[in-house]
Amino acid sequence: MYPAPTPAGPTDGAPPQPVRPRRAWALTGALGGLVGLVGIFATATLTAPAEQFRADNADYVAAVADRTGYVWAHQVVTVVAIVCLAVFAAGLRRYLAAQEPADSLVPAVATTGIGLVLVGLLVGGGISTELFFALGAADQYDPDVIAPQLTIVATMAWLWGGIGLTAAAVAVGGFRHGSVSRWFAVFSAVVAGLVAATQLTPVQYIALVPAGIWTVVAGLALAFGQASRSSDPPGRVIV
């Protein structure tokens, strides 16, 4: 009678395969930044034919009454950006939490910054439903009611100042704890400064430009490992 064969243990046979890093959340963030940056600029041409009528709401609304497609597109852009950035925020928090000390505020502050942008997108895109139907029947609505809705569309979704807070948190984490590579920490610090400049002057909506670029670059860098400490050149010391 022969003994039954013993199953191979975990140390027998081929060595375990290395765990592949998760990239989907970071790529989703890059997509969200790109959609927001390009899409919001594209749909901003909604009011282009009416710029000369700013002093008269009736003429202003009449000039854009047939451009409801832009309103719908704006709504789609904001929804896609919201979904992508929400996923990116969760992934970024998990990534930073794994790199930072246990009591670090960096992951929470970075996530809060993106959350502020999500609120602006939600409000800026949410008005699209009311505006779509109002423009579609502009002769039945008070132009003095529609005009402020156009102002909300032209402002709220552009307020990406919260990304400046995110970039600043990432920069602090990189410099103090080495949670990201030095080049990415420097890049984040520069973007945080640019975004802060837009928030301290009456051009807050221009924050979309540096913030959108940071989100695209951050997503791609994090997805392909270029934002990690291992991407620093040999001999560089992270402080």
Order of helices and strands: HHHHHHHH
Number of DSSP-assigned strands: 0
Q: Give the overall average pLDDT.
A: 89
Number of domains: 1
User: Major beta sheet, specifics?
Assistant: none
The coarse silhouette is elongated
| Helix segment tally | 8
Beta percentage is under 5%
State the distance separating the first and last CA atoms: 67 Å
Instruction: Please compute the radius of gyration using only Cα atoms.
Output: 24 Å
Q: In which range does the helix fraction lie?
A: 55-70%
- Helix/strand-derived class? mainly alpha
Low-confidence stretches: 234-239
Mind sketching the topology for me?
Elements: H1 24-43, H2 57-64, H3 68-99, H4 106-136, H5 143-153, H6 162-177, H7 182-199, H8 208-223
Helix pairs in contact: 1-3, 1-8, 2-5, 3-4, 4-5, 4-6, 6-7, 6-8, 7-8
